[in-house]
C-alpha cells in the first residue's frame, strides 16, 4: 500500500497541537471512518466537542467526509492521509512555538499509548509478551551519523511487509521509534544545557 502523507503548515500544526484532535486523527487513520458520536464514545467526550474538533481537522485538510457512508442523518469522517510529516526545524524562527507545541502533543500521545500497553501487558498471551520490548540504546554519535541511522530506521519501517489480514494470528502491533540526544548533554543556541547555563 502506498502511504499518503500531509506536511502541515504552521496553522495546521497549531490545530494538531490539541491532544484530542491528534488522538482522533490517529483513530481515523488506524481504525477507519467513524461518526462524531462513535468517536465521542471512544474518547470519553461529548458529541459537540467531537464535532468541533472534527471541523478543525477538516479546515486544515486532515479529515474529509466519507461520502460512501452515512444516510443523511449521520456524517461519517475519514482521514485524508495516512501520515503526517512535520519538519522539526521550522523555516521561520517565529514558527518554533507551533512546532514545539505539536511535538509536545505527540510526546504526550506516545506516552499514553505506552502506558496503556504496559498496563495491558500482564493480560497478554506469552507469545505477545515475548514479542514486545521496552528497550533503549545509548550510543555516542555525531548529528550526521544520528540522522543517517534514523533515516535507515524510517526506511525499514516504511518497507515493512504486513501480515495478511486473513491471518488469524496477526494483530495490530505498534512500533514507537524515538531518537534524541540524551537530555542535558547538548548546548542550545543560547549556550544552555538542560535549562542551566553552561
TrEMBL record:
The UniProt record lists the keyword Glycosyltransferase: no
Residue ranges of coiled coil: none
UniProt entry keywords in alphabetical sequence: DNA-binding, Transcription, Transcription regulation
SUPFAM superfamilies: Winged helix' DNA-binding domain (SSF46785)
Molecular functions (GO terms): DNA binding; DNA-binding transcription factor activity
Every HTH arsR-type domain range: 1-96
InterPro entries with a match to the protein in the record: ArsR-like_HTH (IPR011991), HTH_ArsR_DNA-bd_dom (IPR001845), HTH_MetalResp_TranReg (IPR051081), WH-like_DNA-bd_sf (IPR036388), WH_DNA-bd_sf (IPR036390)
Pfam family, one: HTH_20
PROSITE patterns linked: HTH_ARSR_2
Protein's name according to its UniProt entry: Helix-turn-helix transcriptional regulator
